[in-house]
Amino acid sequence: MNFCLSDLVPPLRWSDASRIGILSEQGDLPDAWWRSLPMERVLGVMDPDALGELITDLALEHWPAAAVGDVLPALYVLDPDEADDPQVAIALDRAGSWPGLLTLSGRELTDQPFIKARPVLTALFTAVFARLAPSLAMPGEAAEPAPAKARAARSPVRHLRPAPEVPAPRTPQSDVDFPALIDGAFSDMDDRTWMVAQNRVFTDSPSAIEELGKLLAVSPDVLQALETTLRLWLAEWLDKPEAAPYKAHLAWLSDELGVAAPKSRLIAAAEWHKEELRSLDVPAWHFVVATLPGYQVSGDWLVAGDLADLHERTRGLILNAERPTVARALELVSSLGIHPDVAKEWLENVPQLSIQSGKKSANGVPRSANGATAAKPPGQLKDVALTRRCFRQPDGRWWLRVDVTGEHIQGAEVPMPTGFAAYLGLKPGENRPARSAAGDVELTWASRPGFGSLQRILTEVAAKEGSHVFLTISDEGMLRVRHLSASNGGDPTSQALRLVGYTAPGGTPDQAVRVIATRIGLSGPAGRPELLTRLRERGDRDLISLLD
Q1: Number of H helices, E strands in the chain
Q2: pLDDT tens figures, 371-383
Q3: Against a cut of 0.70, is the pTM above it?
């Protein structure tokens, strides 16, 4: 691999590196080594630890305003587990996600409470060079291939090997090894295409093409062309004889799912759906969803067609029925193609729908299909994708934006929308703690759900009135916090992107539509009218005023 350090560290290209003493002081390396010497020779003189410390010094002393991921873009395709360091774990918890950590600059890391910027940066940079070193063996040596995540992105699709022929199964539960069948076809993608496959095609929460382009430091047009090529090749592969067993499985699966089904039903439909595909480094069910004709993922549901349209048709059936009881509603909804065993769950997740079960609560008020009173307060939606100020970030989690007020800073409770509470698994009457770097925070649901005081967290991140914090809970029960200072003006498009947690510079109106649509759970291409309709349904008036 004939590439040098400046190919990996872009700031070396736009800096006057000849005037940076620390670079020219490396006595065992020739002049201008950072742009002339191949990396295998650099790593033959400097080990990954020394190189990591060198880049850390440069980042803190010469590029303090550059984002960590801009200093070394290869971090974006590094497995976070490879940067296994206690200081990195603390910084990751405070940033809320791996991409969030990489968007922080060295100066911002230095200013964060409880974070020691130098050991964090050294651990991150060293991890990349440690992963790179085995793949740069000298000629004649057998180099162990680095995992796909650590490959350097270089070229478009090289070659996708055809899968070996496998006898067609008698039933979808046959002895066909479907992961091997898929891995055989996708085991030889180049690195950029692999990133597009993992983040755009075989995922239930695709990354915005602009965000992925920024992560990989390439033009979105290049990635779009790779995605188009990959999807065409995928369609061709599905029509080949060797893919016949898999297509039979998809046909059986469509019958099993019906028009709409919880995502969990697809995952549990076959044991191999839960396995990891080695070629793509994604769960097998992600591949299945991407190839299931006509289906789209929206939140926790898999729907054939448009989710909003199916919601509307369901509401129309129920509202036009003479006696919309639960039994009648279950009968009606089956006419839409929804299987009886998921019909009740479907009805409970249709926004703005209340069905009387004929039962009454203690005070005589009729109860709905899910046991709550039929007079459900407007705006309290169970679907987090239809909940105001909730946004799905690139890490796949839904985050709640809290607009900081003086009362919050003084320790007042922070209200939580019921849709977000349901996403966190919080139930009415429940009170449970969530751990954070600043101590436990209570999650409560008495008359309404909410966070207890965030005063210590807001103080530590230096939040001011008018700034924003984005909150979510990790799988381990940790409260993750991302702070954005108050906006200092800017055009409406940038302000709108900021309100959904997107802070990359140079956003255009079309980009804003795509990014915001992705972050509120709209699947497939969505234009401005569809976006504004969904925002009105959610109640995001601040975003509507900036975009309309």
Answers
A1: 28, 13
A2: 333 333 333 335 7
A3: no
